[in-house]
Amino acid sequence: MPTVWFSSNGERLGTYDGHKGTVWWLDPTKDSKILLTGGADMTLKIWNVETGEKLHDFPHTGPVRHVEWAEGDGMFVSVSDPFRGAAATVSVYEFSRNVDEQPQEPKYVWEVNGLEQGKKISRATWLPLNKAILTCDEFGVMRIHEVETGRVIREIHEHSKRINCLSWNKEKFFLITGSADNSAILWDAVDWKVLKVYETDRPVNAVAISPIKEHVFVAGGQEAMSVTTTSAKVGKFETKLFHMVFGEEFGNVRGHFGPVNTIAVHPEGTGYVCCEHGGLAVAVEARFTSGSEDGYVRVHDFDKEYFQLHSELDDLSALTNLA
Question: Which sequence ranges form a coiled-coil region, renumbered to this chain (predicted)?
Answer without folding.
Answer: none
